Amino acid sequence: MEWFAQKWQVVESLAPFLLHGLWMTFQVSMIAIILGSLLGAILGVMKTLDSRALRLCIDAYMHFFRGTPYLVQLYLIYFVLPSLGIAWLQFDSYTAAIVSLTLYTASYVTAIVASAIDAVPRGQEEAARACGMTKAQRLYHIIVPQALRLTVPPMASVYVIVIKSTAVLSVIGLSELTRQGETSILRMPQDTMFIYALIAGLYFLYCYPVLRFARWAERRVGSSAAAQENA
Amino acid sequence: MAVNNNEPGPRPEQGGADQRMVVIDCISRRFSIDGGKTVVTALDDVSNYIDRGEVVVIIGPSGSGKSTLLRTLNGLESIDEGNIVIDGVDLADKKTNMNTLRADVGMVFQHFNLFENKTCLENIVLPQVVVLKKNREKAERVARDLLERVGIPDRENNYPRQLSGGQQQRVAIARALAMKPKMMLFDEATSALDPETVNGVLSLMKELAYDGMTMAVVTHEMGFAREVADRVIFMDGGRVIEEGSPGRFFDAPESDRAKKFLEQIL
Ligand SMILES: Nc1ncnc2c1ncn2[C@@H]1O[C@H](COP(=O)(O)OP(=O)(O)OP(=O)(O)O)[C@@H](O)[C@H]1O
Ligand SMILES: [Mg+2]
């Protein structure tokens, strides 16, 4: 009983602090997910166009951001870029977080979208071409809609990875959930384990609905044709 | 020359300067495979023509270049040498809009290639709206008429995968016809069908031929070729080896290769 009372006190005193961290984590990751998905969708479509130069550039970008740890990318963007002396590359920690996380997210989304487009059977593109549709019309009406449904399952796991990557943002002093937790531990070192458990619980609280939503979306996309037909 | 001869129907008098729908002039097409080490000559200096209202059936062994030839006629395949003129439109001309040309040349594929994300009706409506800029209502009316004509009026809200192969191919034919094409290309349109649905699709193609549609047909259905073709073209190794009326070709082939091919297939 006493144990519970003591822990409850910890929770009560830390709640506003940790919830602020969760809110920051939510905000940064959501913005990065939305911007990163848009950027990734555009780059993914561009990667499948006929231009070799374009494809090489996008490949280089993808390999860099997927082949290096996010922490390194964050350091580069927050600590190294400003030293170049270009005014608009002097990011504060919030902007650096969003820029780096958006680029990181987009690198994965680009790969997912490009391979989903490649997975649409060739005959679909050919038939659309044979009808006289332009490249843009083919993409818009036929290819991208069919590719999108293939992206739902892998996209969800990328989103969860992105959410968890925000923990790294504590190193540039952004007051997100992990950072708030570490600060709390400094204040209450005797409750280290409990506070870590609280943080883990809060991350789970955020990630789990995302995964659930993904599963729901997956089922919906898969059966949308059947649903329409019954309507 | 903008000869707007979109409506199937009576054909111009034979012998006029405008009698040719397609003129194929010394075309070649090569593919380099395994990283450029090997070059396959799919079409080797082919010249030919298709007249208005003519039904040309192209036959030949596997890999002889039949599909490649057909696909050059709507620009799905580019050519390395030579030239093709379709209804006065020069395909090699940089100013030719290939998409406009493709809207005028209908194509039916072996594997139907209906748009999987669209209903049957939408498959037929979409190209009319997007390419021909028709208004939706008109396009739907055309689509429903065509579905009726190809014999499946009650499946308009089904998705392609809910239809049998034969039904899908009928929708694919309707989709091509909705564009009011000057000419239709069929690449083994019945090869992927169950035996019992082959005849339905063949008789649909026959009807089109008798309605005066200009057609280039790649097929292994020799009965169809004999009955419907105005001219048979036999290809091998990327070249036209022999051509003639079906009666002449099937009963008295001249080349050894054609004789051997017919022996194997009949
Ligand atoms: N996209 C391509 N890339 C490489 N080689 C190709 C390509 N398309 C066709 N070929 C080659 O060109 C040759 C002619 O092929 P094509 O498909 O025109 O033959 P076909 O007469 O239609 O044969 P089938 O009866 O098997 O359909 C073949 O040797 C084929 O391997
Ligand atoms: Mg073929």
Automatic annotation (TrEMBL), chain A:
Places the protein is found: Cell inner membrane; Cell membrane
One Pfam family of this chain: BPD_transp_1
Domain ABC transmembrane type-1: from-to ranges: 22-211
Membrane topology classification: Multi-pass membrane protein
Entry keyword set: Amino-acid transport, Cell membrane, Membrane, Transmembrane, Transmembrane helix, Transport
Name used for this protein in its record: Amino acid ABC transporter permease
SUPFAM superfamilies noted in UniProt: MetI-like (SSF161098)
Organism field: Halomonas gemina
